[in-house]
Amino acid sequence: MDQASWGQWTAAEAASWIRRPAADDDKYRRGVLGVVTGSIEYPGAAVLGVEAAHRAGVGMVRYSGPRPVREAVLLRRPETVTQPGRVQAWLLGSGLDPSRRSFMLSGDLQHALASGLPVVLDAGGLDLVGTHTGPTVITPHAGELARLLATREVDTSVEEIRADPGAWAERAAHETGTAVLLKGATTYVCDPEGTRIAVAAPTHWLATAGTGDVLGGILGALAATHHERLATDAAALTRLAATAAYVHGEAARLASAAAGGGPVTALDVAEAVPRVVGALLG
């Protein structure tokens, strides 16, 4: 793959996809993100995704999940709403096990997918790709992408994807008909229309547990804040995905700098997101 043929996402481009609230905005105009993530086994996925979404500037986060996970989410972010209601974009799948979906969870997922709203499909929601008609972006790492492609009778391996991630991200976009954000040291974002964007991580401390859940929350928030644009321009989701990857990387860089250049945790990255957003808008 010729990486030079992929566009590099800059701060100026990312800033153009951050929506600054207007004087007449309320929480609904700013966007409501519906979140169906986390499980008894992996409650942190929900906590981290919800945390990141709040910090990325969404007007409201509406969470659905098992009671113990809801309690963990509310303990960290009490402003989260846990009752059904109005939603403008969805984040689905982080921390879920596709083989252990309850009847209630399956119903929540199908309700979200039937809404026609923008959807971010992560981790345990990747098998649902193709069951949704709204703008969709999938956010796999190499292992998840290999498993997804195998279900579509595409013969590949994790090693092959890591050797040529951009080419495989493009293949996945055409196979699934969705925007693809393939996570890695360089994140590749593309769609079936031919948009190709590479976002290099500014620090490799980002390779730690839970940071993918944070990325999902940032991207879900951006989709919700741009719900009006996405209603008429589904392709905008690709650029929102590139912006999420940029914000994610910069938040990790700031968090590491605050630690003297040392390691960071996923929660450190989420907590640094407002500073990145503020710097972009400034």
TrEMBL record:
Q: Which Pfam families match?
A: Carb_kinase
Gene Ontology MF terms:
ADP-dependent NAD(P)H-hydrate dehydratase activity; ATP binding; NAD(P)HX epimerase activity
Positions bound to AMP: K183, G184, A185, T186, T187, G212
- Give the enzyme's EC designation: 4.2.1.136
Record carries keyword Disulfide bond: no
Q: Which UniProt keywords apply?
A: ATP-binding, Lyase, NAD, NADP, Nucleotide-binding
**Which top EC class is given?**
lyase
Q: Which cofactor does it need?
A: Mg(2+)
Catalytic activity, as annotated: (6S)-NADPHX + ADP = AMP + phosphate + NADPH + H(+); (6S)-NADHX + ADP = AMP + phosphate + NADH + H(+)
Q: Which CDD domains match?
A: YXKO-related (cd01171)
Please provide the Gene Ontology terms (biological process) for this protein: metabolite repair; nicotinamide nucleotide metabolic process
For the YjeF C-terminal domain, which residue ranges apply?
10-280
Positions with a binding annotation for (6S)-NADPHX: A45, G95, H141, D213
Concerning its family, UniProt says:
Belongs to the NnrD/CARKD family.
- Purpose of the protein: Catalyzes the dehydration of the S-form of NAD(P)HX at the expense of ADP, which is converted to AMP. Together with NAD(P)HX epimerase, which catalyzes the epimerization of the S- and R-forms, the enzyme allows the repair of both epimers of NAD(P)HX, a damaged form of NAD(P)H that is a result of enzymatic or heat-dependent hydration.
On subunit structure and binding partners, the annotation says: Homotetramer.
Name recorded for this polypeptide: ADP-dependent (S)-NAD(P)H-hydrate dehydratase
Organism of origin:
Agromyces sp. G08B096
